[in-house]
Task: inverse folding
């Protein structure tokens, strides 16, 4: 049981020359796809790989500034920034079983041999959108910055955008890619208005303005590109400087931060500005870097804020230590003032320092230290240069803080102990920094803020000496205060993990002690999520808001909680759950093994989208009882269950009266105001609130005593049914009274633009496939497209969809088909039209040997109708390819009715199906190869199956055209999904030519 995670990529990362990453998000996450706790009351574990020490660098981190081409400390010493970047801290917070605190601890642990003086923190728009900017700053970025302060390391806060840097280029990108990147100025100002002032007083912080500006690239006009970038970005530099007058700012450049050489000629206005370079093997050999990245360092400060290599990586990152890494080091160290930050201290964001059993795994992370791998080389390089170009301390303080007092164990489990102590005050000049926590004399971690933590990764039924010391900002450390802690045995019988008192809330992860079959039942033997909270087979994962939850639920699993009920009576039960599936699951609540309630967990739109669902009234007797939460039907994540009430109101089964005189008082294009006459309640518990629904779905609740409400976020010129019911404190709900309302049309009387590029993408005897480019609307926004046949409206498709199929037509007939755009105010554009003729009726004659079986579903037969270049297949869905050695943009080429793909350890291919194909059992590729045996040289990916084609079929590719069949059931392909695609991935080391005559399902 744990969250069913759906890793998402940074939307801004998709615009890059690494076509494989852009078009095949199913590939192993790379720097392009994704580019494209230790805080208060946190958790201190055994470390990322059974670490026994967490030594900090002990290097001063005073405010830096620039003088000419140098980065200097307050004493005027030259400083060289050296370090690495992990993945986005928000990525660890949302998806990875490791926390960002763990990763940053490891990356700065001198006892492990890591000696950076700078760690880059990439902040992706993807994480910001998922968590919300405020949550991201306060719960992710601020703790990460504070942790690095305690580790004596500079924090480079990088706004990790990869996208166009002008609005015109953004709009072009959106049109060409059917995307919806937000206006660039809105994105930049929103982020830096919040982030720049947040860390303005943190002397160890450096800002990186914009990771990789992409377009306009203006190849062949470097000066023009840099000036266009400077014109766009200077206001953002000014904005940051307004909020943070002294914080150094690192500035990138167009073409993925590769036009560094223009900075001396066209510098930005402002003080303490540094210029970035991003360099990978795809940029060429280091011997050629002087003109582009080296010579600028003779005039301005330059830091290579991204570089890396990977022998088995993609075209951008592929390289070796001997062939590229060592020459790069020799080159960069030829410039005394040039700093460097390597990418990436992770196991999944490529090129990665570590490998793990599965991308994004919890344990173990193994450093890639083979001779030609990057991870071990960077570690050695950092250690060799750890004493070079470091700042001088501005603090004269050699007096340690006092030792903490009052250390005690506040709670024990099988694998952890919670401890707390009294705060200390440092009287020296440096000021207090953090607490170190020890287990049996070995340092386990730090607590930066607060005086309590959980030490986990311990063994059951064991005794430990736990110690805490205080450390100031000059690195002076107090003596340890110690206490003895004992963990409990795993076979101690059922007992409460937490003393739950009702009324109150029960966290899902705090089920009883006792183990499998006693306190819980789980169908798996290990925690699939790896959250380091308890030693258990229950799948405990992390939850953004409450810390942990339980997921991967399977039918028949259960969890038990020992509770003490304060007073008997009727309690209102509420659960907080999430369901990312298309259908609901069911949970059951039992008290002392007797069923008291069941509840359907409907889809909530994602496995991290938790909602509170009212289960209803539950009778709980006074005293100690065992509550069991049962997975009656799988498919939901469980955060907590709460029981409220119990004040003797259990006898109230009488609902309030229904509200009366419901009426609409005001409407606007986007809202409606309603009012009603108050309800009364005679059941004894009293009126609690009113529930307001829109078209049958709960919109909001207002407290008793309020008899009006405003319903917002409505569409203009649209009819709704508004309902109001009354709910008492016992949970009884009245009947719902309703009223119909139609929002105003508003001031928008301007129709959208006419859809462009209307074209016929395919025809059959009875249908025509259309495609067009999206319309725009300056008013209320495009709502739908209307499709016409000979002047009569035939169908409508929602905004965002720019294809349609007109069915039910007559063979060999010419029609005028058209498309118009309609906005939410009802304004309709003019109609774009085109003529199309349906196919001749099939007379049954012809060469049946070349035809697919009559019952087959042809995905694409590469007969030129539609043409491969139109990016549409025979199903009318998107298809495409890239990074091959032939065809336009490496997309392959159709020759004599076959798609020819020439590959040399590179290439991606996609055919979208996007429909339920449960009626078919076999995928058939009709193919031939130049050499034969190509089934062992590329991955086949469809519906959950992803493996070498040779492992999914008994057939072989030969030099003659033959059918290669994949049994979908045997391969593990789920044919019922609506988002199915057939993907081929040629980054497996082979080189040949594959010719595909047809792909079909039988």
Result:
């Amino acid at each position: 049981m744990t969250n069913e995670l759906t890793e998402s990529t940074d939307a801004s990362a998709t615009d890059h020359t690494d076509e494989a990453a852009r078009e095949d998000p199913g590939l192993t996450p790379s720097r392009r796809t994704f580019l494209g706790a230790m805080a208060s009351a946190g958790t201190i574990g055994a470390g990322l790989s059974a670490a026994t020490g967490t030594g900090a660098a002990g290097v001063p981190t005073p405010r830096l500034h620039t003088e000419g081409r140098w980065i200097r400390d307050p004493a005027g010493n030259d400083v060289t920034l050296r370090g690495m970047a992990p993945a986005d801290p928000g990525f660890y917070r949302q998806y990875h079983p490791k926390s960002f605190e763990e990763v940053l601890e490891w990356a700065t642990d001198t006892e492990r041999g890591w000696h950076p003086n700078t760690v880059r923190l990439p902040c992706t728009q993807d994480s910001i959108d998922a968590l919300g900017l405020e949550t991201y700053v306060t719960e992710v970025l601020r703790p990460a910055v504070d942790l690095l302060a305690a580790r004596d390391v500079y924090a480079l806060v990088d706004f990790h955008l990869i996208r166009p840097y002008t609005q015109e280029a953004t709009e072009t990108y959106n049109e060409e890619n059917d995307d919806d990147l937000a206006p660039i100025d809105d994105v930049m100002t929103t982020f830096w208005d919040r982030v720049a002032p947040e860390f303005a007083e943190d002397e160890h912080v450096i800002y990186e303005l914009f990771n990789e500006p992409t377009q306009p690239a203006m190849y062949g006009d470097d000066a023009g590109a840099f000036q266009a970038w400077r014109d766009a970005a200077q206001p953002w530099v000014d904005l940051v400087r307004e909020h943070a007058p002294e914080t150094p700012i690192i500035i990138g450049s167009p073409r993925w931060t590769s036009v560094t050489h223009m900075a001396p000629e066209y510098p930005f206005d402002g003080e303490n500005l540094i210029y970035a370079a991003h360099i990978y093997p795809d940029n060429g050999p280091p011997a050629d870097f002087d003109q582009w990245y080296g010579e600028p360092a003779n005039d301005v400060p330059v830091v290579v804020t991204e570089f890396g290599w990977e022998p088995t990586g993609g075209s951008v990152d592929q390289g070796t230590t001997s062939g590229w890494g060592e020459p790069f080091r020799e080159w960069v160290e030829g410039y005394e003032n040039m700093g460097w930050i390597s990418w990436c201290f992770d196991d999944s964001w490529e090129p990665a320092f570590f490998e793990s059993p599965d991308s994004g795994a919890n344990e173990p992370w193994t450093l890639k230290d083979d001779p030609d791998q990057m991870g071990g080389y960077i570690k050695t390089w950092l250690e060799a240069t750890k004493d070079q170009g470091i700042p001088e301390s501005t603090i004269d303080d050699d007096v340690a803080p006092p030792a903490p007092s009052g250390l005690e164990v506040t709670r024990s489990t099988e694998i952890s102990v919670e401890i707390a102590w009294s705060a200390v005050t440092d009287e020296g000049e440096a000021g207090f920094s953090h607490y170190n926590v020890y287990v049996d004399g070995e340092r386990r971690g730090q607590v930066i803020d607060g005086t309590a933590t959980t030490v986990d990764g311990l063994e059951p039924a064991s005794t430990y000496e736990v110690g805490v010391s205080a450390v100031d900002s000059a690195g002076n450390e107090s003596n340890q205060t110690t206490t003895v802690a004992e963990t409990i045995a795993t076979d101690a019988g059922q007992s409460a993990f937490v003393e739950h008192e009702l009324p109150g809330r029960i966290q899902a992860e705090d089920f009883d002690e006792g183990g499998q079959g006693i306190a819980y039942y789980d169908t798996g033997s290990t925690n699939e999520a790896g959250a380091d909270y308890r030693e258990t087979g229950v799948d405990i994962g992390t939850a953004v808001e409450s810390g942990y939850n339980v997921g991967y639920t399977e039918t028949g699993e259960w969890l038990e909680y020992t509770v003490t009920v304060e007073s008997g009576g009727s309690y209102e039960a509420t659960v907080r759950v999430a369901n990312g599936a298309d259908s609901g699951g069911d949970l059951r609540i039992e008290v002392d093994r007797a069923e008291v309630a069941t509840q359907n967990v409907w889809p909530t739109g994602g496995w991290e989208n938790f909602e509170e669902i009212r289960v209803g009234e539950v009778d709980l007797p006074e005293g100690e009882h065992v509550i069991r939460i049962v997975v009656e039907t799988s498919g939901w994540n469980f955060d907590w269950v709460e029981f409220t009430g119990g004040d003797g109101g259990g006898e109230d089964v009488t609902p309030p009266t229904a509200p009366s005189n419901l009426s609409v008082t005001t409407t606007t294009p986007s809202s409606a105001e309603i009012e009603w006459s108050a309800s009364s309640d005679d059941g004894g518990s009293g009126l609690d609130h009113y529930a307001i629904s829109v078209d049958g779905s709960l919109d909001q609740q207002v407290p008793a005593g309020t008899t009006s409400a405003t319903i917002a976020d409505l569409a203009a010129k649209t009819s709704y049914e508004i309902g109001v019911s009354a709910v008492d404190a016992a949970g009884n709900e009245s009947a719902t009274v309703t009223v119909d309302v139609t929002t105003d049309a508003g001031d928008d009387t301007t129709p959208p633009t006419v859809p462009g590029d209307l074209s016929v993408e395919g025809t059959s005897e009875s249908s025509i496939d259309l495609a067009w480019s999206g319309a725009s609307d300056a008013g209320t926004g495009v709502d739908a497209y209307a499709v016409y046949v000979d002047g009569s409206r035939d169908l409508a498709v929602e905004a965002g969809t720019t294809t349609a199929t007109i069915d039910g037509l007559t063979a060999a007939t010419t029609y005028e088909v058209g498309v118009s755009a309609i906005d939410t105010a009802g304004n309709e554009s003019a109609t774009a039209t085109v003529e199309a003729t349906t196919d001749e009726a099939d007379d049954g004659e012809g060469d049946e040997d070349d035809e697919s079986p009559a019952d087959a579903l042809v995905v694409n037969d590469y007969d030129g109708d539609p043409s491969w270049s139109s990016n549409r297949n025979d199903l009318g869905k998107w298809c495409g390819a890239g990074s091959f050695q032939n065809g336009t943009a490496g997309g392959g080429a159709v020759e004599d009715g076959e798609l020819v793909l020439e590959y040399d350890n590179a290439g991606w291919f996609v055919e979208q199906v996007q429909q339920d194909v449960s009626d078919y059992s076999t995928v058939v590729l009709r193919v031939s190869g130049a050499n034969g045996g190509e089934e062992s040289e590329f991955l086949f990916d469809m519906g959950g199956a992803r493996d070498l084609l040779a492992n999914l079929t008994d057939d072989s590719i030969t030099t003659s055209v033959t059918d290669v069949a994949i049994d979908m059931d045997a391969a593990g392909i789920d044919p019922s999904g609506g988002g199915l695609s057939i993907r081929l991935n040629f980054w497996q080391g082979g080189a040949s030519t594959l010719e595909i005559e047809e792909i079909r399902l039988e």
About this structure: The radius of gyration is 32 Å.
